[in-house]
Amino acid sequence: MKNTYLLLILLHIGFLHLDAQETKHLPKGFAEGEKALMPTYLLDRSAMDACALTETPNVPIRSMAEWEELQSIAVTWDNLDYQLVADIIRYAREEVEVVVLAQNPSTAQNQLLNNYGFENLDNIRLVQAPTNSIWMRDYGANPCYLNDVDSLVFVDWIYNRPRPLDDDAYCIVAEEMNIPMYQTVEQPNDLVHTGGNFMADGLGIAFSSNLLEDENDDTNQWGMSDHTTEEIEEIMYNFMGISDYVLMEKLPYDGISHIDMHMKLLDEETLLIAAYPQDVSDGPQIEANIEFIKQNFKTAFGTDYRIVRIDSPPDAQGDYPGWPFGNGDYLTYTNALFVNKTVLVPIYLNDEDDKALAIWREALPGYNIQGLDCRNIIRYGGAIHCITKEIGVADPLLITHPQLRDVEYKAGVNHEVKANIKHRSGISEAILHYKTTLSGNYTAIAMNPTDQDNWSAAIPNQPAQTTIYYYIEATANSGKTQNRPMPAPVGYFKFKILDEVVSVQNIEDQLLIGEVFPNPARALTYIPIENQENISANISIIDALGQEVISVFKGQLVQGKYNYFFDASKLPSGTYFVKIISTNMIVTKKFIKQ
Description:
Elements (H helix, E strand, L loop, with lengths): L1 H11 L21 H12 L15 E3 L6 E7 L5 H11 L4 E6 L2 H11 L8 E5 L7 H4 L2 E5 L4 E6 L7 H14 L3 E3 L15 E2 L4 E5 L1 H4 L14 H12 L3 E5 L14 E5 L2 E6 L7 H14 L9 E6 L25 E3 L2 E6 L5 H11 L4 E6 L14 E5 L5 E3 L6 E2 L6 E8 L4 E9 L7 E4 L1 E2 L4 E6 L7 E10 L4 E4 L8 E6 L5 H7 E3 L10 E8 L3 E9 L4 E10 L2 E8 L6 E9 L3 E8 L1
Parallel strand pairs: 2-3, 3-4, 6-7, 9-10, 12-13, 15-16, 19-27
Antiparallel strand pairs: 1-5, 2-17, 5-6, 8-9, 11-12, 14-15, 18-20, 20-24, 21-22, 21-25, 23-24, 25-26, 25-27, 28-29, 29-32, 30-31, 30-33, 33-34
C-alpha cells in the first residue's frame, strides 16, 4: 500500500522531484504546488499501513523536555549543508550516539571519513532511510515517557507537508532503536502538527503558535482534522501528557509560524526570547506574546517565567525579516539544540555572535556552548534545531527543581531547596551541594525525602550580598546517578542574598523616581529623582541579564530635584533598566535603546 501511494504522489507532483536524492532543498514551508496536494495526502494517510500504535496510551504519559538526558540525536545526511551536519555530528557524538539517516549509508560513511575529517565512525549509527527533506525537527517523532520515567516511547503526529518519506522516517528510527511509537493519524485523534512549533517543559506545560489551531480546525486548507481548540488540547493530553497548552499569536513575518525560530525553554522557568529593535520586524508581536504569557500563565512550580532576551541580528545585507524591513533572512540564536552537557547554537560569523554566545553561557553556566556556522542553511528557513531531533535515555533519573531566586536578607532564615526526584527503581539518596564563592569548595548536605518523590534540604542563612552557587545530586536504587543542572559541579544554579528592606514605605516617601527620558534612549539620557533628604545610593544601567553595563552614580543623593544623566549612545540595541539601590530599597526603570 505504501509503495502504491508513494507512486501516486510522485506521478501527481513530478515537477517537485519528491525522491530522496533530489529534494533536500525543499524549504521548511510549502514548496510550489505542495499546498494543493495536502487534502488528498492527508485523507490517504489513515489508509496507509500502520507502523505504530494509534490508540491512546493506557497509562499516564509525559513529554520529555529537551534539556533532559539523551541517549541519541537524529539527523539526516543531506545535500543542503554537509558541513553543518558534519559539525553537528562531530560535537554531538562526544555526548551521545548520533543516528544518521541516509539514502545510501555507505556513501555517507565515505563522505564523513574522506571529506569531513572523521578518523572513525565511533558513536555514529548510519541508518538507511530515504527522506524528502532535511527538516527532521518537524517530521520526527517526540520522545515521551510512560508513567513519568518508566518507559521511553515516541509520539508521531501527521506532518503538515505532503512528503511521505519524511512522514514515515521515524517508523524506521523506531524499529531500528526498538522504541514503541504512537501516532495521531486515526480519527478522532488525527492531529497535524510540527516539532518546530512545539516546546515542552517536561511537566505538562507546552508552547506553540496558534498555527496548530489553524491547521486542525474547520478553517484549515486541507478539508480534514476539524478539531476545536479543546479537542486539540485533549489529544495532546491523551497522547503527550500536556495539561496546560500556551497557544500564542503567529508572528507576521515568520512565514512558517514555528516558535523555535524566536524562543527556547532553557529550563522549567526560563524562556530565551529573540529581541528586535523597537517596532522592527516581529519584535512587537513577540513582546505582545511574552506579555500574554506573563499575564496568563505560571510555571509548573507556580512562579513567574524568567525572560532572557537575545538580540536577533540583521542579515549580511543589514535587513530584518519582512518586506517593510528589507525581507532579510530570519537569523536566530534560539534555534539551538541541547545535547546533554553541550548546547549547539547557530551563529552567522557577524559582530553579534560573541554577545549571543555570552548570553547563552551566562544563562547556562557550565554547559559547553558551541556555535556552528548557519549562514547557508538559514536561507532555507531554519537552523540547528530544525534539522535535528533528540532521543531520550531509556531509564531517566529525573530531577525537577524550582530554582531559588534572589531574596532579601532575613536574620536566622535558611534557604530551603526542594526537588522532585524520580527513577523507575526508586531513589536511594539525594545530596544538595552549595558554596558561596566560585573558587571555593562545595559543602554537601543530605536531602530528606518528604512525600510523593519530593526531597528537601536547607542552605544555612548567609550574609546580605552573598551569592550562593548550588546543585542537586541524586542516586537511584539501581546505582544510576544524575546531577541537576547536568554539567554540575562545573555547572550550577545561583541566587543572591539582597540587602534587608527595613521600611519601603518610608523611603518611597523620601525618594521620588521618575521615568527614563527620552525613551527610547539617545546619547544624553537621564533619570529624574527628587528626594526629601540626603540618601546614599548607587545608580547603574543593567542589561536584560541583570549585568551592569554603565555605572551612573555612587554616593549621596543630595536633597532636592536632580536629573542624573548617562550616555546611552554606545549601548547595543535592546532592553535595559536603570537600577537604583539605596539603603532600604531597590527600584528599576525599564527603557529601550534603538
